[in-house]
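dumping this here so i dont lose it
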């Protein structure tokens, strides 16, 4: 009996950091050797994801095109509806063979081109390890104004996924 109780306690502890629908994730700070904001190279804190609806792209640079159709649909959706939500693009630098300095240069130009998007570098797959996001993938996560995860998808978004995400964004603004 004691072994079953101990095993259950370990499993529950291991799952506490995973993203759970309807819950605020474990706080994470990307700073220094773990990563940073692209603009200014200052720390990014996941607790800043509140008081607005946030659509987060967590992407392996080798999978950047997997959800480009969603990024374009989201851009059009936001413009057509005049909606006020934030976008965050976190790049999983540890998931690629490409040199960080090249990706960082590309990210700096993206930040200039899209100043309304928050660009973040995750140099050590911190969100993969702490939030159990899919590694070597394109992940889409949506948070409500309280910072609770209301949508998560790993891999390419289907038309149904896109419609569901748009509906959740509108309902939570």
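and the seq i came up w/
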């Amino acid at each position: 009996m004691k072994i079953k109780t101990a095993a259950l306690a370990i499993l529950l502890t291991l799952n506490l950091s995973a993203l759970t629908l309807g819950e605020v994730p474990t706080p994470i700070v990307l700073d220094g050797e773990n990563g940073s904001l692209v603009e200014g190279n200052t720390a990014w804190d996941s607790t800043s994801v509140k008081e607005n609806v946030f659509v987060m792209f967590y992407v392996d640079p080798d999978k950047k095109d997997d959800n480009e159709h969603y990024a374009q649909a989201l851009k059009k959706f936001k413009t057509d509806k005049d909606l006020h939500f934030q976008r965050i693009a976190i790049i999983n630098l540890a998931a690629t063979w490409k040199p960080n300095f090249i990706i960082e240069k590309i990210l700096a130009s993206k930040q200039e081109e899209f100043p309304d998007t928050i660009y973040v570098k995750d140099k050590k797959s911190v969100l993969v390890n702490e939030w159990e996001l899919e590694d070597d993938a394109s992940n889409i996560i949506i948070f409500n104004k309280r910072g609770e995860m209301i949508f998560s998808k790993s891999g390419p978004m289907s038309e149904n996924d896109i419609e569901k995400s748009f509906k959740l964004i509108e309902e939570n603004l």
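Residues 2-172 form a domain with the Glutaredoxin fold (CATH 3.40.30.10).
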